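User: I'm new to structure prediction. If I give you an amino acid sequence, what do you actually give back? Let's try with this one:
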Amino acid sequence: MNYKKTKFRILVKFDKFVYKFKKFLLLVLIVEISLYTGYWFAMKKMNRPIRYELAHTTEASTEASTKPIKASGAVLNGEVLVVPLIKKIAAEYGVSSHLMTELVRCESSFVSDVQSNYRYSDGGREESFGLSQIHLRAHTTVSIEQANNPDFALRFMAKQISQGNAKIWSCYKIIKNKGII
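Assistant: Good question. You get back a string of structure tokens that encode the predicted 3D arrangement of the chain. For your 181 residues, that looks like this:
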């Protein structure tokens, strides 16, 4: 009799464990779906292309690399793809990868071929492009192709930060005031 009660208790505990584990898996699935749909709706709302393909980086120098890094016709977009490149370049220039990541998150949302949505009072659109939102009127030696190139844009940002010029990005003040950096 005692053996049957013990066996029954073990089975009940196991059933409760399985039930809780299934609830956990369902919660993880719901979170994954909501993150994906949130990204999808955000990109649609901003009229930005949704990128699915993985991209690769090249070791080309910043002077020679003027074309966006592409794989299967898609430019390098998304935090998962951009952050490793940020960490690599930040280490080369001896600057904070956290600062660079937060600047890129704020400036371009990790989209490498984006143009600023800021509109001037005359209706014209600001000429800032790429991951680092390089303002072409202020940096006349930089082309649109270079600004949209992830490697060039991140090296540009790292060089400016290493020279103490992080304040040229409007997001620097925003993320500093929020205490993110």
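You can read the tokens as a compact description of the fold. Here is one thing that stands out. The chain has six helices and four strands.
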